[in-house]
Amino acid sequence: MAESKSHKSSSYVMTPSNTAQEIARLGTASSYGDLQHQIWLKTLNGQLFTAPVDLKTKTTEGEAFDVLDVGCGSGSWAIDLALRCPHLRILGVDITPPILPDDPQTSNITFLKADVEQDWCFAANTKFRYIHGRMLQSGIHDWPALLQKCWEYLAPDGWVELIDVEHPFRCDAVPSEASAMPPFVRFGYAAEEAWKSNGLDYRATLKHEERFRALGFQSVSDRTVRWPLGSWEQAENEEGFAGDMILANFSKFIAAAGTAILGSGKAGEGYAPMSAEAARELVAEMTTDLEADWITWKYWLCMKVYIAQKPTE
Ligand SMILES: C[S@@+](CC[C@H](N)C(=O)[O-])C[C@H]1O[C@@H](n2cnc3c(N)ncnc32)[C@H](O)[C@@H]1O
Q: Per UniProt, which keywords does this protein have (predicted)?
C-alpha cells in the first residue's frame, strides 16, 4: 500500500482523527480506549468483532500479519485486540494513523499511514485472516474496489467485517406537520447530500450484501443495532443501553465537524452547497434541540454490521 502524504489526497470530508477535537472524542493511542470504541464494546457485548473467525491461535506463517484494521482512526480497536491477543500480528492503516507509545504490551501492532483507496502493495504472500473496517463511509468513494482488495488479501476461510451507520438519521416520534422535520433528521439529509456531492455514498451499507456475493464471498450476513441518542430507549424497554454515551459522542462529533461537513458540498447538477451561515444555523439548531428535546423526538442511528467469508480455495 503506497504511503500517502496527507489526508487531503483522499478528499476525506470529516475531521482527521488527530485533531484536538477528535482526540477528545476518539481518544489517543496512549489512552487505549475512547468513547466511540466503548460504545461499540457495549453494542457487541464486550466483543471486538462478530465474525466467527478463530483468532485465539496464530496460524499465519512467519512475520506476516494476521489482522488488518482498515481506517483504524485512534487505533483503539486495534490496540484492544493487540492486548487481548498478544500472539496476533495486527496492522492498522489510516491516512492519519495514531502514534503508538513505546509499550512492549503492544509490540504486536503496526500502524501504517496510507490511503486504502490507493493500490495495496503488501508483500505478495500477505494474507489476512480477518479484515475489520468500522465507520468508513466518510472516506470511501469506491466500495467495489475496496471489497475487491479485501478479497485479494484475505486468506482462504478468512473473514471481513464492515460496520457503519445506515442513513437516514431516524426518529421514532412523528412530527405534527409534514414540514416540521426535526433538526437531527434534517441534518442527516443535508449531510448526506453534501457527502454525495463529494462522491461518498451514505447508504453504501445497503449494497454491501450484493457486492460481497458478486465477488464470491460466502456466509454473508448482517445485523442491525439501534443506537438511541439519549437514554429514552433504556427508559422504555429497560434493556439498558449506552444512550447517554451515544448522545455525548454524537454531540462532540457535531461540535467538531458538523459545520465543516455541511459546508463541504460541491456545486453540481441539482445541488447547491449550503452557505456557511446556513450550515452554522442548522448545527446550532440541532445542538440546542439535542440538548433539550432528545427525549421528545426519540432519535436513533441505525448501525449495520456485515460479515462475509472468503471460501476455501
Ligand atoms: C470515523 S473514523 C473511524 C475510525 C475507526 N475505524 C473507529 O471505528 O474508531 C474514520 C477513519 O477512516 C480514516 N480514513 C478515511 N478515509 C480513508 C482512506 N481512504 N484511507 C485510509 N484511512 C481513511 C479516517 O482518517 C478516520 O480515521
A: Methyltransferase, Transferase
Rounded CA separation 76/259 (Å): 26
Q: Is 73 touching ligand 1 by the criterion CB < 6 Å?
A: yes
pTM of the model: 0.89
CA distances from 125 to 60, 61, 153 (A): 11, 10, 9
Cα 40 to ligand 1 centroid, rounded to whole Å: 15
H or E stretch at 165: strand 154-171
Mutational pocket test of ligand 1: of 12, 23, 303, the residue with most ligand atoms within 8 Å of the beta carbon: 12
CA distances from 129 to 117, 135, 290 (A): 20, 20, 41
Contacts of residue 17, defined as CB under 8 A and 6 or more positions apart, other chains included, come to: 23, 26, 73, 74, 94, 96, 98
Q: Give the domain range for residue 88.
A: 7-309
Q: What is the pLDDT of residue 27?
A: 54
Q: Whose C-alpha lies nearest to ligand 1, atom 8?
A: 134
Closest-CA residue, ligand 1 atom 20, reads 115
CATH code: domain of residue 108: 3.40.50.150
pLDDT tens by residue, 135-171: 999 999 999 999 999 999 999 999 999 999 999 999 9
Ligand 1 pocket, 139 CB below 6 A? yes
